[in-house]
Each structure stands twice: as C-alpha cells, then as structure tokens.
Amino acid sequence: MSALPTAEDLKAQIEAGVPGTAVTVVPNGSPSAQHSLLLDHGHARAVALFLRDHAEFRLDFCSLVTGVDWLDTELTEKLKVKKMVAGPDGAETEQEVEEVRKTKVPGYLEAVYHLFSMEKKHGPIILRLRTANRTDQTHVPSLTPVWRSCEFQEREAFDLYGIVFDGHPDLRRILMWDGFEDHPMRKDYVPPADDILAAPRPEAHA
Amino acid sequence: MTTVAELERRVEAGEDGLGDILEVSMGPHHPSTHGVFRMDVRLEGEKVVRLKPVFGYLHRNHEKIAEHGAYLSAIPYTDRLDYLCSMTNNWGYVLAVEKLAGIPVPERAEYIRVIVAELTRFQNHAGLVGFLLQDMGASGTPLMYAFREREKILDLFESLSGARMMCNYLRFGGLRVDCTAAWLEEVRRLVAGLPKFVDEFEALLRTNEILMARTQGTGVLPRELAVSAGVTGPMLRASGVNYDIRKVDHYGIYDRFEFRVPLGDHGDVYDRYMMRILEMRESLKILEQALRGIPEGPIMDPKTRLRGLRPKAGEAYGRIEAPKGELGFFLISDGSANPYRYRVRPPSMINLTILEDMCLGHNVADVVVILGSVDIVLGEVDR
Questions:
Q1: CB distance from B154 to chain A under 8 Å?
Q2: Residues B61, A185: C-beta atoms closer than 8 Å
Q3: Which of B100, B230, B314 is facing A149, going by the closest CB pair?
Q4: Chain A residue with minimal CA distance to B232?
C-alpha cells in the first residue's frame, strides 16, 4: 500500500492542480483519523477528475456515497452589553448588562464520497459536498460522470435525503416508490400514522 | 446494437421487417431473482435492448433503525442484511465501531473471526454455484450437493452461536462466547473433508458442454467498467482486477495467512463461476492455517464497554471483504449512545449498477444466468 499525503498536503496539491478551487479540511476527532475535504460546488467535478487521473493518487474507485442530515442548530451566546439602565431613583446610568443572544445556524445536507485506488491500493480519501440549506437549496453537483459507481448511491441519497444531484443521468427514487413524497432518512422525518383500518378503502368491484 | 430510440424512429418511418418491442417485467416474484427484485426489460424478439433494475420491495430502512438504537443493538440487525452471511456482516460492523472508538481485539478472537468468516465465504460460494447451475437448468442436484456441505457448516454455527443463520456472534472488542476445543476439532474434521467436495463439485460440471455454451462469452464485464462502477468481490476479480480487501487492508490478522487471489481473464459468467470455486479452495487454505495457529486466551478485552458505548464525536469507515464484495459501514458519532449516521455500503446493490451493460444484446434467458452470477441477496440490496 503506497502512502497518501496528509489532508493538508492534499488540499495544497488540489488547490495547485485545479486553479480557483477552495478546499477546506474537515478534521475528524475519532481514533480512525479519517479526515475529509470539503469541496466547493463549482470545482467539485474538476477536483474529482484531478484525483481520479492524477498519476500518484489514481483514485479510480469511489466506494461509498451517502447523505448526512445536519439539522438547524441554535447557537446561544452570552454577551456583555453596555446599556442605559434606570436606577431606583429614576436617573439613568450606563451599566454592563449580560444579554443572551440566540443565533440560528442553518442546517445542511451533506454528500460524502469515500475514494480508494484499485491501482495503487490506497485510500480512503473522503470528499464532502454541502447544500446551502435543508429546504429549498438542496443541490450539489453529481459525480456520476466521473465514477459510475455513484449512480445508484446518489439516487439513494436523493431518495432518502432529498439531495438533488445536478448532472446525474437518471435521478429517480430508488428504494421508496415513485409517489412517495418525503425523505425518510432525514432527522426530522415523521412517519405517517400506521392506521390501516382508518385508511380509505378502494371501491368494491361491482 | 440497436437502441430503443433508433428502433422507435424506424417504426415511425414505416420500415418493414422490424420485430416488435416487448416490455417484460421480470419479477418481483420470479424464481431466478432470488428474492423480491424486478427488472423492467425491453425485448426485441429475444434480444434485450433495455434493462432497468427496480429495488425497494424489501426496504426496511435498516439504517434508520440502527440510528435509533445503541451501538450494540445494531449487531443483530446486520445479520439480516445478507442473510446468508451473518458472520461477515457482523464483522464489517464491529470493525467500523472498533475504528470509531479505538477498541483493541484479543488474538484468539481474531482467529475465531477468521475461521467463521472463511466458513461463511465457503458456504456462500457453494450455495451461489448451486443456485447458478439451478438457474441454468441443472435442476436440483448441484444445489443439493452444495446444500449438503452448507448444512454441516450451519450446524457448526449453531453449536457455536445458537443460531444457524442469524448468528449475532461478533461483538466490538471480541466475540460473544468462546468456542470449545471440541468445536475446533469438529471444524478441523470438516475442513479436512471439504477439498474432496470441491473436487467433486468442480469435476461434475466444469467441462460440461451445456454449461460452457451457456456461460462462456456471456455477460462480459470489461475491466475498466468494473473499476469505474465500483464492482467488488469475485465479480471484480473475474474481470482481472487484483483487488481483495483481505490483501489490501490486512484487516484483522489476514496478513498472517498465505493465500492466493484468483483472477479471471474474460470477465464472463464462466469466469465468475470458476472464481467462486477457486476462492473456496483458498478459504480452505486460510482455515487450515488459522486452525493450526489459534492460541488460547481471552476473547474480549475486559475494559471494552458493550452497553452504553459512547464514542468520541467523529466518524469512521470500516470495510471487509465479504463473500459478495466490499461490505463497508460508515459511522458518524456525535458523542451520544447511538450513531448519528449509520450507513451500509452494500456490495450486491452496487454490483448491480452494470447489470444492464452486461445484459444488452443477450437473449432473455441469459439475463437469468447473468443475474445469477452477480450473487445478490435482497436483504442487502434493499436493506
């Protein structure tokens, strides 16, 4: 097994090899230490091609594609603010007051790609693509044109998470049926009430 | 190769002598699909011009179930992925948890894992070859020969774990129960007799004229396409790509055993069939070495926490060479007692990506054979 460069080195090499791209290293705190690279949408496919065709990396095998749902979070900060406060005698004085400020951090959907090389027998290199939010901007570029193995797995992420892969040749639901509307792997998915008796029955045949 | 669009254009142009295009829905209940799996096939006469696999009939949302439970409680669910190979499914999952939480595994447990995994591979391949021959019309006999040996292995699993198929045997950090010396003796006796079975099995049909006519040159999978489509396992190696995760990752203790990785030349159904026979022989080699080298000792590190495991926030991808290909588990921990994200990389589903490419231009009867050579289990395809 030949050695791969560290995530930081890889970031530098990608940014040198694909002009204009910005790669962010996403650290991984677990003992596995499998760090990943967050790509920007505009250059994702160029970076994928670079990694696949680079003579040293030859990441010809995209093993795993999956979605991850990160919910909206609320960030609570305690700030010290100077304010005019009316004292008991009615006169206003400037005092430091503690204020709790809550900011909403929008969640996002994430597509994660695990790459290996069958030729060089190394890996994994992990790529991540993030959507802008979880509701109306859920597009990421598809990597199926680069690795055929993404075809079914991107369809699955589309089906179960609602990530729309732009440029996928055949983006349809794969596990749920066509008329199904929600995305069951999302963290806030509520399954419909399983009440068979209450469901309307089809008309009996005459 | 005529495409559907071209045929439709020719029909509209009023050209004579064109066959009809027939749409056939093969499955979901069809003996050759080995479960509930459907293929939307378009035929021009007997020739396949389009084939789209349809999944989801056995979809239980395994991943969601696992995300709602503790790390330990997902192990019995993994048995139900590829329900013929529960031991290797367990291994794939516990390997990912061990990577995520940094859990060591004692030596004896590693040896027993190798023994049960190779027995699993043997019975899976024997069963697959039996089913494949059954699909080709060798009705009953080869399958029963395979199942005769498979029964002996399942009996061993039963006496070890209490269950024949849903073994639920591996644990992160080791195993659920230790094996006895008598059990190891039974395995030794079985393994000593298995080469004879493989010889017999192979001699029966390897040079059979009908088998060769049906399988040679059928469903060819070119090397480049196999790599790009992420095909793994015996199917990939039948196309000549030397990639066996036991050799690449050396997970467990596979670096201690000597075995070959058989490779095919043509990537057709015959090569895939032979690949299974050759891999059975290699599994037996590994089994002999493991049975010779197995040490005494604990099967579980006493410090391992099975219940209430809370790995540090982070993620890990663990993968093994399951009988059907690369079985991987991707876990994200947020520091709580259940996985934030739990994902299975199912080899048999991804191996179906190129089913259409392999079937185009073949007769509809060959679709059955080609699908049989992929080796799918719907519990894993749909999860």
A1: no
A2: yes
A3: B230
A4: A63
Mean pLDDT, to the nearest integer, of B263-292? 90
What pTM value is reported for the model? 0.84
Tell whether A188 is within 8 A of chain B (Cβ): no
Q: What are the structure tokens assigned to B83, written together?
A: 């329900």
**What percent of chain A has a predicted confidence (pLDDT) above 70?**
93
Phi and psi dihedrals of B202, rounded to 5?
-75, -45
Whole-number Å distance between alpha carbons of B323 and A129: 32
> Which pLDDT value is given to residue B187?
92
Q: What is the pLDDT of residue A204?
A: 64
Q: What number of other Cβ atoms are within 10 A of residue A204's Cβ?
A: 5
pLDDT tens string B305-344 = 888 888 888 889 999 999 999 999 999 998 888 999 999 9
Out of A61, A64, A124, name the one closest to residue B227 (CB): A61
Strands A139-141 and A164-166 come out as parallel
Nearest CA in chain A to B95: A32
Contact assignment for A149 to B316 by CB distance below 8 Å: no
Average pLDDT, integer, range B76-101: 90
Q: B-chain residues within 8 Å CB-CB of A34?
A: 315-317
Contact B257, B290 (CB under 8 A): yes
Chain B residues whose CB is inside 8 A of the A28 CB are 314-316
Q: Average of pLDDT values for B363-378?
A: 87
Residue B352 contacts A, CB cutoff 8 Å: yes
Residues of B within 8 A of A109 (CB-CB) are none
**Which residue's entry shows tokens 């996002």?**
A108
Contact pairs from chain A to chain B, CB under 8 Å: 106
Nearest CA in chain B to A147: B228
Q: How far apart are CA B268 and CA B182, in angstroms?
A: 43
SS3 of chain B: the string is CCCHHHHHHHHHCCCCCCCCEEEEEECCEEHHHCEECEEEEEEECCEEEEEEEECCCCCCCHHHHHHHCCCHHHHHHHHCCCCCCHHHHHHHHHHHHHHHHCCCCCHHHHHHHHHHHHHHHHHHHHHHHHHHHHHCCCCCHHHHHHHHHHHHHHHHHHHHHCCCCCCCCEECCEECCCCCHHHHHHHHHHHHHHHHHHHHHHHHHCCCHHHHHHHCCCCCCCHHHHHHCCCCCHHHHHCCCCCCHHHHCCCCCHHHCCCCCCCCCCCCHHHHHHHHHHHHHHHHHHHHHHHHHCCCCCCECCCCCCCCCCCCCEEEEEEEEECCEEEEEEEEECCCCCCCEEEEECHHHHHHHHHHHHHCCCEHHHHHHHHHHHCCCHHHHHC
The residue of chain B with its CA nearest to that of A27 is B314
The sign of the dihedral angle between the CA atoms of B170, B174, B176, B182 is: positive
Residue B294 CB: number of other CB atoms within 10 A? Answer: 18
Contacts of B316 in chain A (CB under 8 A): 28, 30-32, 34
pLDDT confidence tier of residue A1, bands split at 50, 70 and 90: very low
Q: What's the pLDDT tens digit per position in B104-128?
A: 899 999 999 999 999 999 999 998 8
HSE (CB half, 13 Å, CA atoms) of B206? 12
